[in-house]
Structure formats: structure tokens, C-alpha cells
Design a protein that fits this description.
heterodimer, A: alpha/beta, Glycerol-3-phosphate (1)-acyltransferase, four-stranded mixed β-sheet, three-stranded parallel β-sheet, 7 helices, about 45% helix, B: mainly alpha, Non-ribosomal Peptide Synthetase Peptidyl Carrier Protein, Chain A, about 60% helix, about 0% strand
């Protein structure tokens, strides 16, 4: 009974935190000056002929990217599915985005990963949805592209659409990933790379090489976004 | 070819081992290193190549090579 009471209490707290997070996200997001500085043609091509893609960027850009993707989803331009961990952080993320109609799948590479990857795979192949897959999530190592995202691209035949995000002025949180929170009215730069298809017939060595290439690509896009607003990578 | 033999070949390919090395008691994660991405490949290959469908509950119950063979035995 005590556990149930604690659980209810925790659920209420997460609900309050989710409401607060939505409010902060909208209040801040509406003040940001978001500019696609590179690769707009890749997004335009996707919006002109919608098809599932795997949206990828580094974990500490999750807040920075949130308003950008929320706006695309809200305008009906892109159907997005989100992978959220089974932790309390994941519950918070789920509640924040569920309110905005963004479907979430719970799980990670460490917990519930098999089912979560299958659910994401189905969301792509049967639902035609585009998942946000953060390749260094949910707990790092920071800026390390995990092979699961490449395998998802292989098996679903959906390309990875890589993004770099950077804010000119921002705060960093003390989390493992040094999460970036852009300051009000700051400039946000977005870089978008070419869609990346991953061949299903790769050997394990070739897949590892592909993983490294994708990691370098995401690093490069992020650095170019940072350069365009004069920001530096938080480490 | 026997469906269980074919399944063993698929498991062996994903695990990077020979079919003869596999034992029913082998755990997919601990003994064969089949992590979540490899498990996704394994499930999709089993479905595609054996022409079967595996539900989430059935997939979640597959912890060992024997579990996979048992599932194929019961679904045959």
C-alpha cells in the first residue's frame, strides 16, 4: 500500500514536471530564431514526398531540437515517433510529447531493447512514421554512435536523416551529456545531411565501419552548425 | 530442410558461430552476444526466412536457443 502511495506520488510529480517542461519548451522555443543553415533541400525533399526516415542527432541537442521537430509534427508535415527509456526521465519525455500527439515507444538498448526496436521497426515499416533515434542515448558514452540505429536503418530500409543543432547562447545542465538549453531569443542553427541508407548485406566489420562513418558525419554536421553561430561543443 | 535446422543456421549466422557450436541451453545475450540490434535482426530473419510470425510476448520469452526451438516445435 505504501508502495502504491509512493508510486502515485511519483506519478503526480512527473505529471507536474511534464507540464512545466512543456511550458518552458514552448515559452523558450517561441523566442528562438531557428535557421536551417545547410541541407534544407533534404528536408524539403522529405516534406514534398513524405516517407519514413530515422531522425538522428546527439543526445545533448534533444532540448535544442525539440521545438524544431514539434513544429514539423504540429503542422502535420512529419509523423514522428519517439523512443524514450524506461526510466523516470523516459516517463517524463513520454508525458511531455504525448500531450502533443507524438507517439512514444518505451525501451532502450539496455532495458526492453528488443521489444522497443521491434516496435520502432513496425512504426517505420507498417505505420510509415519517422522515429527520432538518438544514437548516443540514453546514457552515452557522449557522441558515440551506437550500432542499433544503423541496424534499424538496415532492417527497415529507411534512411537515417542526420541533423546538427547548435545554439549561439545556451546553458548546459550537469547531466552526463551536458544537455544544452538555448537561452531566450538566441539564434539556433540547424544542419541537415543527406539521407543515409545502410545496406542490409554488410558484414559485421563493414557495419562497424558504417557506424564510425555515421558518427563522424553527425560530429561534422554538429560542428558546422556550431561554427555558423560561433558556438563551441560543450565537453 | 528442417525448420529447426534452418533456425539454428540463422542463429549461428547472427551470433557469428558455427551451427555445431550451438546448444539449447545457450543464452542469446550472455552466451552468444546477441544484443538488442542483433536480436532485431534475428527475429526479422526468423520471420522472413521461415515464413512465420513471432508476437512480442513470444519474442520476449526467447532467452535461449532452446526457447527458439521450443517455440518452433509448438508453432509447427
Amino acid at each position: 500500500m505504501g508502495i502504491n502511495k509512493d508510486s502515485r506520488h511519483g506519478s503526480v510529480l512527473i505529471g507536474i514536471a511534464a507540464r512545466l517542461a512543456r511550458w518552458v519548451m514552448l515559452a523558450l522555443g517561441r523566442t528562438w530564431k531557428i535557421e536551417i543553415v545547410e541541407g534544407r533541400e533534404h528536408l524539403d525533399a522529405l516534406l514534398a514526398e513524405p516517407r519514413p526516415v530515422i531522425l538522428s542527432f546527439w543526445h545533448n541537442r534533444a532540448f535544442t531540437s525539440s521545438f524544431f521537430f514539434f513544429d514539423l509534427h504540429r503542422k502535420g508535415l512529419l509523423d514522428i515517433t519517439l523512443l524514450a527509456s524506461q526510466s523516470r526521465d523516459g516517463e517524463l519525455v513520454t508525458r511531455v510529447f504525448r500531450r502533443w500527439g507524438i507517439h512514444t515507444v518505451r525501451g532502450s538498448a539496455s532495458r526492453g531493447g528488443r521489444q522497443a526496436l521491434r516496435a520502432i521497426h513496425r512504426a517505420i515499416t507498417r505505420g510509415g512514421s519517422s522515429p527520432i533515434m538518438i544514437p548516443d542515448g540514453p546514457r552515452g558514452p557522449l557522441y558515440q554512435f551506437k550500432v542499433g540505429v544503423a541496424v534499424l536503418a538496415q532492417t527497415s530500409k529507411a534512411p537515417i536523416l542526420p541533423f546538427g543543432f547548435a545554439a549561439r547562447k545556451y546553458w548546459t545542465l550537469g547531466s552526463w551529456d551536458r544537455l544544452i538549453v538555448p537561452r531566450p531569443f538566441t539564434r539556433l542553427a540547424v544542419t541537415i545531411g543527406e539521407p543515409q541508407f545502410v545496406d542490409r548485406g554488410l558484414s559485421s566489420e563493414e557495419l562497424e565501419a558504417e557506424r564510425q562513418r555515421l558518427q563522424e558525419l553527425l560530429d561534422d554536421l554538429t560542428r558546422r552548425a556550431e561554427a555558423s553561430v560561433g558556438a563551441r561543443t560543450p565537453v | 530442410m528442417d525448420i529447426k535446422q534452418k533456425a539454428l543456421e540463422i542463429v549461428a549466422k547472427i551470433a557469428g558461430k558455427g551451427v555445431a557450436e550451438l546448444e539449447p541451453k545457450h543464452e542469446l545475450i550472455a552466451d552468444l552476444g546477441i544484443d538488442s540490434p542483433k536480436a532485431l535482426q534475428l527475429l526479422l530473419d526468423l520471420e522472413d526466412e521461415l515464413g512465420i510470425e513471432i508476437s512480442d510476448d513470444e519474442a520476449a520469452a526467447m532467452d535461449t536457443v532452446g526457447d527458439i526451438l521450443g517455440f518452433l516445435g509448438s508453432s509447427a
